[in-house]
Amino acid sequence: MAGVRDIKTKTELDEVVNGGKPVVLHFWASWCEASKQMDQIFAHLATDYPQALFYRVEAEEQPEISEVYAVAAVPFFAFCKDGKTVETLEGANPSSLAEKVAKIAGPTVIEEPKEKVNIEILSRSEDPSGGLNSALKSHLEKLINSTPVFLFMKGSPEEPKCKFSRKVVGILKDEGISFGSFDILSDNEVREGLKVYSNWPTFPQLYFKGELLGGCDIIVSMKEGGELQDLVKESNSSDSKDDSGLDAHLVSRLKELIDLSPVMVFMKGSPEEPKCGFSGKLVAILKEECVPFKSFDILSDEAVRQGLKVFSKWPSYPQLYIKGELIGGSDIVLEMHKNGELKSLLEEKSIGKAEAETLDERLKRLISSSPVMLFMKGNPDEPRCGFSSKVVNALRKEGVEFESFDILSDEAVREGLKSFSNWPTYPQLYYKGELIGGCDIVLDMHSSGELKSTLSE
Predict the structure, then answer these.
(1) 54 near 5, Cβ under 8 Å?
(2) Range with lowest mean pLDDT among 50-64, 207-221, 223-237, 329-343
(3) How many CB atoms lie within 10 A of CB 443?
(4) Of the candidates 150, 136, 54, which has an alpha carbon nearest to the alpha carbon of residue 100?
(5) Percent of the chain scoring above 70 in pLDDT
């Protein structure tokens, strides 16, 4: 991989980290599929940010280094500057990785592609997307057709991650064109799949009514030739509008998003990383009320951000919806929280504590959901630690059917199960509701021949 090198010793790493340049480290494992996927993104970022140094560390082969950086699962990333670790990231999260790299390394340095793609290839009779699986193809088509004008880009309209995406966003905004967008850095499957689907090898890619217009150079040419004005007229035509003046496709998408969860928050950023104080405040209130909710980052999609203001007749963010109805923003939610109205409303709508199981009840249900139940880091196809991988392999070698739960996906389960089982580490294997043990015990039973017989009683 161009721009990415492997670290072999701690001494070598210390020299790199203290060398004066920003350093990004990827701790990986050969058995981890998520590591392989993130490797591709890591390589792209290394090309985009040549002012930083990108190194890989094989986590289990370099335990001394892994211990220094407190690596508990892979993929894991550490971001170093001026000889110090300033941030870390655990898990396969392309968007967060790109954001943190940009933060530590500064602006991208990307060369214009030397070879231009002839747009005439798009009109050929063969379907270039024939090699894609049906699920991915359907997902791409749903994205492309979610709004009349749709842009696949690096980053978001608010924070483009490359100069070509920034240029196209600027043109669309200058022309007054409403558009939806998708950050291709957040999903490598979409990123690679769209290249095949569109037969277009670079980003950004702009679509109009499901048809590819092209990349940055073509959009610039269309603007200079006045062709984008035709697109403005068509995208704003009354035939595609509802009573609110919004595009019918956008209205349908907004309704789908609002109905995504009984409690839905439209916010800046994510619950884990709010991008404004008001969004952070609202998230904290919902967590304090123990309310299960989903969220949408309005910074990731300009069409949703602007359209929802019109649809809801509410001019700011965050916006809280309960069972499809707008409750309000952070000030209203805070006031309702203080005077008890929010709790009463949630109980009235059978949401939150009134609807949720206790943690012990949930743990018992999960443990009993399969005769053989494994609580692990990751899933059987993509384990996120070597111990989980070893237990999965032992069970598969014995031909044992089992279900699993990824404890990295739920912090309450991860911490609660330790107390419930009085077992402090993972993985944990259960049979008919009873704890068998962790990796060492399972491997001992596998070696002695006890594992299959115990799990067959």
Answers:
(1) yes
(2) 223-237
(3) 17
(4) 54
(5) 89
Mean pLDDT across 182-204? 84
Dist CA 80 CA 334 (whole Å): 38
Residues 6+ apart with CB under 8 A from 209: 145, 148, 234
Q: What is the pLDDT of residues 228-246, one digit of tens each?
A: 776 666 555 544 555 556 7
CB neighbour list of residue 251: distance below 8 Å, 6 or more residues apart: 242, 244, 307, 311
Rounded Cα distance between 296 and 195, Å, is 26
User: How big is the CA angle at 415 (ends 410 and 420), to the nearest 5 degrees?
Assistant: 115
Instruction: Tell me the two tokens of residue 170.
Output: 């600027």
Q: For 209, phi and psi rounded to 5 degrees?
A: 50, 45
Contact 27, 74 (CB under 8 A): yes
How do the domains of the chain map onto residue ranges?
A: 4-105, 131-236, 258-299+313-354, 360-454
In the sheet that holds 434-437, the strands lie side by side as: 403-406, 372-376, 428-431, 434-437
The pTM score is 0.39
Number of Cβ within 10 Å of residue 404's Cβ equals 22
Helix or strand (DSSP H, E) at 142: helix 134-144
Which residues touch 444 (CB under 8 Å, ≥6 apart)?
none
Q: What is the mean pLDDT of the chain?
A: 83
User: Is 261 in contact with 324 (CB distance < 8 Å)?
Assistant: no
- For CA atoms 439, 445, 449, 452, give the dihedral sign: negative
Q: Identify the CATH class of 360-454.
A: alpha beta
Place of tokens 């030739």: 225
How remote is the C-alpha of 16 from its chain's centroid?
30
Secondary structure class of 442 (helix, strand, coil): helix
The pLDDT, as a whole number, for residue 287 is 85
* CATH homologous superfamily for the domain 131-236: Glutaredoxin (3.40.30.10)
The more confidently predicted of residues 396 and 3 is 396
Q: How far apart are CA 44 and CA 98, in angstroms?
A: 10
Q: Which two tokens stand for residue 122?
A: 């798009």
Phi-psi region for residue 78, left (φ > 0), alpha (ψ -120 to 50) or beta? beta
For the chain, give the percent of residues with pLDDT over 90. Answer: 30
Q: What is the DSSP letter of 117?
A: P
As assigned by CATH, the class of the 4-105 domain is alpha beta
Q: Which residues pair with 28 in a beta bridge?
A: 58
In CATH, the number for domain 258-299+313-354 is: 3.40.30.10
Same fold, 4-105 and 360-454: yes
